[in-house]
Amino acid sequence: MTSHTSLYPGQFRISRIQLINWGTFHGYFSIPVARKGFLITGGSGSGKSTLLDAMSAVLVPQSHLKFNAASQQDLGRHNGRSLVSYVRGAWRQQENAQTGEIAPEYLREGATNSVVALTYDNGAGKQHTLIAIFRLNGGENSVGQIKKLYGLVPGDEDVDKLSPLLTRSLDTRKIKALYKGPGASFTPTYATFADRFRKRLGIKNVEGQLLLHRTQSAKSLSSLDQLFRDYMLDKPSTFSRAEEAVEQFEDLRQAYLRVEDVKAQIDTLAPLPQLHAQRATAEADKHKAEAMSEALPAVRARLVAEELDSRIRALSAQQVEAQSEVESLEADVAHLDEAERRAAMAVSQLSAGELDALRAKMETADIEIEHRSKEFQRLAAAVGEWTEHYELSPQGFAELQANAKLRLSDFETDSADLTNQQQEAGVAARDAATACARLDSELRSFSSRRTNIDKALVELRSQLARDTGYAESELPFAGELIDISPQQADWEPVIQKLLHAFAATLLVPEEARKAINQWVNSRNVGTRLEYRTIPEFTSAPASARSPRQLIHKLEFPDHPMTAWVRQHISRRFNYECVESVTELDKVTQTPAVTRDGLESRPKDKDGSTRFIKDDRTRFAGTAWYRVGSTNTAKIELLRSQLTQAKATASATARQVHNLNRKMDILRTQRDKAQQVLETKFQDIDTASAKARKQDLQAQYDSLASSPEAQALAAAHQHAKEKLNAARARLNQAQKHLGDVEGELKRSTERRHAIGTVPEIADKDIAKAVEEALHKGKRTLTIDNIDARRDEVQADLQDAARTAARRIEDANGKIVSVLHAYLSQWPAEAADLEPQASFAGEGIEKLKYLRADRLADFRARFLELLNGQTVQNLSHLASSLRHARSDIETRMEFINKSLERSPFNGERTLRIDVKDARGQVVQDFQRDLDAATSHSLAEISEDEHDAALQRYHALDKILSRLGSSHPEDIRWRNVVLDTRRHVSFIGRECYPDGTTANTYQDSASLSGGQAQKLVFFCLAAALRFRLAEPDQDVPTYGSIILDEAFDRADPTFTRTAMSVFTSFGFHMILATPFKLIQTLSPYVDGTIVVNYDEPLINGRPQARTGYSLIDASTLSSPNPDQPHPEEPADADA
């Protein structure tokens, strides 16, 4: 190895690499590194990358460290290497014969340490050794368990002397004591270590440090865009500006949320004034209705009294007038009565009273004829259904009575049969009516709710949910989480009976325990309430041992508490469902039940066995059922059953009606036959009665046929007629007088009963009552005033009830508003309660919010909106607009570096910048410009809509900029990373500036051309990152390349190496054997890494070593005879 200690004096280059237990480098190794250049070669899998990864472990922050990065680029995946695999010495994968698992095999199983040291020499007498120590204790195999210590020590220090200090632990105190000279420092923190060695070695910043690491896998750089975007250009300030804007926007967002919060409070309380007014109006209406109702009797009494006073005056006048008329008519009747007596006396004196006697007998005969005719008509109507014609003679009447006797004898038999039919039909009708009533009651009950649980319990739950703020779905009854399988419908009565009590158990989340307990304890719930608090997580129920167990006949809807219900039923209701008593006796270990409801229990300790049969609910119907997540099917079944029951009831009712009608007809026929038998012939013999009347009439006519008798009779008749007429007028007058006097008496009594009418203080109420009484369709009178009073009273009661409901409704809504408000803003509970009586306080709170708080928060919101957030975004927009020109300015420095070295013959390379913004970036910049346009113009308070519009535009942008969602993070990187808003074009130029070739991207180039282009630009990038503008040679010079130039031809390889060396770089190259001769002019030191698996203690063990060679004396391997593959890298 040739000495070049004076090459580039002042530039730090790696001079030695030391390893202790790194990967398959087992033990201590010290590898000298030549100053001119250093070549690491060896077969595939020999350990070249292991050595380079050791240097990376010292030079690269852990968060950016990628082991064997060059191979990862080819594999496209993680290669499995890690700091743990290197510290432990993982060298192969082995399958566990017992478990079948594949796991790495380690050289170092117990507590172990790895040490990597890099010595840098500036060729002018200064040396620094960088030390990294890693320790894993026994049983530790994760990166997070690795203990680390980093040291920076002046001079070229041997680290082999550290081994005795690391046998038991990482003793920092002893290690520091070992290197206690001036300038030595140790720290467990890599960032501190890196800051120190960058200053010592002349690396300007962490970006330069990372570029050195990426250069190690330079062959993975495939385009100019990737090179300049990822390694040349610094992270743009747009990210920090965006972060600052997002942070400051949080104050604006909170101000906006406070405004929205106050507006939400206002919106929540806004109904209160109207509800308060509605309640006041309803209270006034209720008060008026009650006052009118209270005044109604007095107003009615006054109106009746006034009407009675008027009527009494009128009736008194009518009485006097009627009395005079009666007295006049009485005198007329007395006079005419005397005239009639004188006329009658004259007739009597002429016929000695014979005519009067004959007349009396004829009147008696007429009465008898009329009586017998009526009896005959009645009898004819009775027998009309038997016969239309019968002879009115003793013989015909005898035949009619014989017919009646026959009908009476048939009646007993017919009525007995009909009575039996009536009884049977009546029982059927009553059963049908009972079934209809039961089904109708059940249907109404179930239709009023969606659950099978008792209505009282459902209403109680609804009130509990409203008052505690929980949804009813969060407080299910156990029965609502259980369904009986449709295939097990015939078992439903038994299952309903077994689970009846449990189904009504209310299930409460564990976190609601306190609120529910307080609510239940503070009031009378009015019924029996049982509830259980349910934990959030429930163990799975044990598998049912028998397929006949009750759990298999049930289904469970999806609900957070379903698991607990299943578990509880499996444990507490583990009945076996059997078909017969014989099978029941065979079940001895668990409860069992038959289809008919006979239950058995396991045998007690005293040897007895308990049996239960409870048929109290057998005829209760489905209304008694509680189990079921919904009652829809039950309602449909009840409707179908009710329709069928109504049809049956209607049919039985018609049958009963028809039978009753037949019985009525039969009884009527019996009564008519009885009537015929009870009638005598002489009662209907009108012929003999008429003959007697004719005989009497003949006698009378003969006696009264003389002229004198006729004249006297006519005079008597005329006098009699005049008397009768006068008497009729008198009777009418007396009746009228009696009516007047009676009405007068009644009116007077009614008036005395009313007495003094009380005065009503509220004249408006009295007037309103009187108007209400007069509003009827008929004119108000003393006769209809009571009916009208009842109507008005009913209307007033309805009005009062309606007003009370309005008050209750308003109070309920007020309570709901206050409850909603306090639920969302509980801090306000100090001044408010969810009670109707606090409506006034709520309204005052609303006024305060509208008048003061909203204005304050809006002012703060506008102040922030017009502040720094918008200015930050304006600066961000400006940075995005000027990003390309800034990059072009920076690229000028790169181009100046490129001008120093020919790229192809006399031609040089120049990099131009081209706009590459996609649609997403352009849309973002357009949105940003729109949101920040006129940003310096403040928005006043009267432009609130404009302020909200600007806020929402800002919020849309900044919410996405601050989002942690992966898609938004990708979007943020796209729109803010201005390095990706441009693309880079390489132009190969003649000395006069004309373009020979243009390289849009490297994808269209061959592998060698692409490597040439990228490496050339990489060299310029390294110079830009590591050298000061006025430096010819950078202070730090060592560049590591893994698998360098593996696809390039020898000419380009020499060109690229000339580029790197012309920039003053110290090249450390890991490359295959084929490039040794090509690279030998640029290096003065070469090692060959070798790998072997010797038998140690009878077992193969991986070992990696190296040997120094003189590369200039080697010939390139024959390409037709490829180097044989080495064993797989131990750490791969």
TrEMBL record:
Region: Disordered, residue numbers: 592-612, 1110-1132
Biased composition (Basic and acidic residues): 596-612
Gene3D superfamilies: P-loop containing nucleotide triphosphate hydrolases (3.40.50.300)
GO biological process: one example: DNA synthesis involved in DNA repair
Residues forming coiled coils: 305-375, 709-750
Presence of keyword Coiled coil: yes
Keywords: Coiled coil, DNA damage, DNA repair, SOS response
Record carries keyword Aminoacyl-tRNA synthetase: no
A Pfam family the protein falls into: AAA_29
PANTHER family on file: DNA REPLICATION AND REPAIR PROTEIN RECF
Protein name (database record): AAA family ATPase
Lineage: Bacteria, Bacillati, Actinomycetota, Actinomycetes, Mycobacteriales
